Amino acid sequence: MSNITANLTALQLHVAFWDCNNDSIITPAEIYHGFRDLGFGVLFSLGGLLISLFFSYPTTLGHSWLPDPLFRIYTSSIHKAKHGSDSGVYSSEGNLRLPLFDEMFEKMDTTSGGNTSVVDTNAHEGSLGVGDLFRLHAKNRVAADPAGWSFAAMEWWTTWLLLQREGLIWEKDLRAVYDGTLFWRIREERKKNGGVTQGYGWQDWIGGLWNNGTWKTWEVEDEPKVKIEMGREL
Fold first, then answer.
1. Are 145 and 153 in contact (CB under 8 A)?
2. Residue 108: how many CB atoms within 10 A of its CB?
3. Cα(62)–Cα(65) distance, rounded to whole angstroms?
4. What's the pTM value of the predicted model, to 2 decimals?
5. Model confidence pLDDT, tens digit, residues 45-88
6. Residue in 64, 65, 61, 80 with CA at minimum distance from that of residue 12
7. How do residues 124-155 score in pLDDT, each as one tens digit?
8. CB 101 within 8 A of CB 86
9. Residue 103's CB: how many other CB atoms inside 10 A?
10. Three-state SS for 168?
């Protein structure tokens, strides 16, 4: 994979996971199977086909004025599919602007409260909660751009469903989404026993409401648990 992605922009790396045969073209079928590999359900993965519907033609403009009849996405010109009201972390050429990524957490992170990185316990790791994402989306909205508002909302919703852990999106995870490396790791982890232990699916929603009366399952899971051993509380 390293040889294939060596000269790609961060945005091209972000979508490379869905280019199953490395031909620089993403078909609707590849989009569907990519979402399924990440653990999304059939209906959600079918909804992912809207990506081809909305973003095929902008990427086709790098090759032709005529739309692609098969709604394929051309990764070599994926930067042409950038929309308004986004975070601005990708430049107009598709490169990753790390100062803006760091600034996003500096300004929007109201939830981590000194949590440390799961990788390095001596390092602070930022995080974004649901409320932070709503504020971020509102901050980035520009006038007369309902399409951009909608695309950004769908992207953050999908990201939260995929990444949430303890109700939060963590900085290292989101960084790995922007450069695409997390998608490959999730697919590999799903092949192992136990699979991925984060994310939020319809089972969490139904189970949380049914058992605990709340969709915020992580709040219930984080409640202190009393251990009983030989009739004695520890």
1. no
2. 19
3. 8
4. 0.83
5. 999 999 999 999 999 999 999 999 999 999 999 999 999 999 99
6. 80
7. 589 999 999 999 999 999 999 999 999 999 99
8. no
9. 14
10. strand
**Residues 60 and 74: beta-carbon distance below 8 Å:** yes
Spatial CA neighbour of 89 closest among 27, 144, 140, 41: 140
Phi (first) and psi of residue 25, to 5 degrees: -135, 130
Average pLDDT over residues 9-38: 96
Looking at residue 165, the DSSP 8-state letter turns out to be: B
Using alpha carbons, select from 36, 169, 148, 134 the residue that is nearest to residue 81: 148
Provide the β-strand partners of residue 228.
233
Contact 136, 129 (CB under 8 A): no
In the chain, what is the straight-line distance between the N-terminal and C-terminal CA atoms, in Å?
A: 50
Q: Considering only CA atoms, which of 77, 65, 54 is closest in space to residue 148?
A: 54
Question: If you search the block for the tokens 């990708």, which residue do you land on?
Answer: 90
CB 129 within 8 A of CB 166: no
CB neighbours (10 Å) of residue 155? 16
Q: How far apart are CA 233 and CA 222, in angstroms?
A: 19
Task: Give the integer Cα–Cα distance in Å for 140 and 136.
Answer: 6
CA-CA distances (angstroms) from residue 178 to 65, 78, 97, 223? 29, 14, 10, 32
Sign of the dihedral through C-alpha 118, 192, 159, 205 = negative
